[in-house]
Amino acid sequence: xxIAPSQxxxxxxxxxxxxxxxxxxxxxxxxxxxxxAAAACAIPEAQVRLGRMLLAGEGAPKDVGGAFVCFLAAxxxxxxxxxxxLGRCYENGWGTRIDLEQAVDCYRRAGELGHAxxxxxxxxxxxxxAGVPRDRDEAFRWYTHAAGQGHARAMNLLGRCCExxxxxxxxxxxxxxxxxxxxxxxxxxxxxxxxxxxxxEGCIEGAALWFSRALKxxxxxxxxxxxxxxxxxxxxxxxxxxxxxxxxxx
Length: 250
Prior knowledge:
This protein has helices at 5-17, 22-25, 31-40, 44-56, 64-76, 80-92, 100-112, 116-128, 136-147, 152-164, 172-184, 188-200, 204-217, 222-231, 236-244. The chain is mainly alpha-helical. It folds into three domains: 1-111, Serine Threonine Protein Phosphatase 5, Tetratricopeptide repeat (Alpha Horseshoe), CATH 1.25.40.10; 114-185, Alpha Horseshoe (Serine Threonine Protein Phosphatase 5, Tetratricopeptide repeat); 188-250.
């Protein structure tokens, strides 16, 4: 549906009045029109949604500069999702120059608002020392916040932290538990790491189950790397999985 300029304000007003039902509206056949109208009415959720559309070129022509503007607008209202996506733009140079310090600031602000992805992203920056001095203790804290909200990727990183002693004492038992929880949350790296620990303990059937899931869930190029690594495993049962498992998504 294309909305005539003279009618835009009506749609925008209705979008604003039905803000609580915005997600239902976005599933309609007129989703793009609703998103644009609601974004024009300064509804942060719609600004972020429109920004994502422009960033990916889905439902609208790709425009990374326009996406940046949308995320910036949402962030100015204090929207956590907008702040996180603005951080992604600064980190990756999407529609703006790369500015890691700005990325860290956006992630921190969104993380303090409880945004799990921002907490995870901030943990990465702190772990790597990108845009901020390396601080593994602080990274561990932010990963913990994200994991507490069910963030499977953060759970996997907590496993690595416990395994390597990054920001916490080495704790092999805790590492395995975090890998398991990440795997059960559907994250392919968590599944692969959990399978690796099971194989090292001689639990081959359990390892086979999680290696199979990790390979099915993993995108390229990670899928190919995992298959090659598993194909060299000393256990024949696990080597066979590498030859028989294909990814379910690219």
